[in-house]
Amino acid sequence: MELPSPRIGVAAIVVRDGRVLVGRRLSDSHGDETWQFPGGHLEWFEEPEACAMREVEEETGLAVHNLQRGPFTNDCFTIEERHYVTLFVVADAPVGEPELREPTKCAEWRWCAWDALPEPLFLPIQHLLAQGYRPPGV
Questions:
Q1: DSSP code of 30?
Q2: Which of 18, 28, 55, 92 is the most exposed place for a label (fewest CB within 10 A)?
Q3: pLDDT tens digits along 2-33
Q4: Secondary-structure percent of the chain, ordered helix, strand, coil, rounded to 5
Q5: Which domains, from first to last, does the chain contain?
Q6: Within 10 A of 28 (CB to CB), how many other CB atoms are there?
Q7: E strand or H helix at 107
Q8: Which residue, among 21, 43, 8, has the nearest Cα to 106 in the 3D structure?
Q9: How many CB atoms are located within 10 Å of the residue 138 CB?
């Protein structure tokens, strides 16, 4: 029996004025009611930065700039039997306010200080914090 392969997720750490954008996840698959960064699945032949830009625009309507690759995490959701490798991309969003463009997937968007992220956090963010990572500008 062949085991399934891990999926690749991309999470955008959107920074403005020393804060980051997080959304409260609504999901029937995994991570329901946890706080996450905008993001989604990496598509075939897509660069992580392009995925981050696309997902931020689709989910929030914000345009991001100055995208830089960040760290990655290995995320095993044991109860849900899902395995992701999450690639983080750091970006600036100098103007505009986030819109709820996918209200069945996200309940709200909030700008938060890195040291005051709301709980509970989505597993990839928990792993990112456990690495001691801190994005530039926060």
A1: S
A2: 28
A3: 889 999 999 999 999 999 999 999 988 899 99
A4: 15, 40, 45
A5: 7-130 (3.90.79.10)
A6: 7
A7: strand 106-113
A8: 21
A9: 16
Q: Distance of CA 9 to CAs 70, 83, 94, 128, Å? A: 13, 10, 24, 14
Inter-residue contact 61 to 108 (CB < 8 Å):
no
How far apart are alpha carbons 21 and 110 in whole angstroms? Answer: 6
For the entire predicted model, the pTM comes to 0.96
Which tokens sit at 63? 């345009």
Nearest Cα neighbor of 119 from 50, 29, 58, 36 is 36
Q: How far apart are CA 11 and CA 48, in angstroms?
A: 9
pLDDT given for residue 41 in this prediction:
97
Residue 123, token pair as written in the block: 């597993």
Question: d(Cα 35, Cα 29) in Å, to the nearest integer?
Answer: 15
Q: Which amino acid is at 41?
A: H
With beta carbons less than 8 A apart as the criterion, state whether 91 and 13 touch.
yes
Tokens of 136: 């530039």
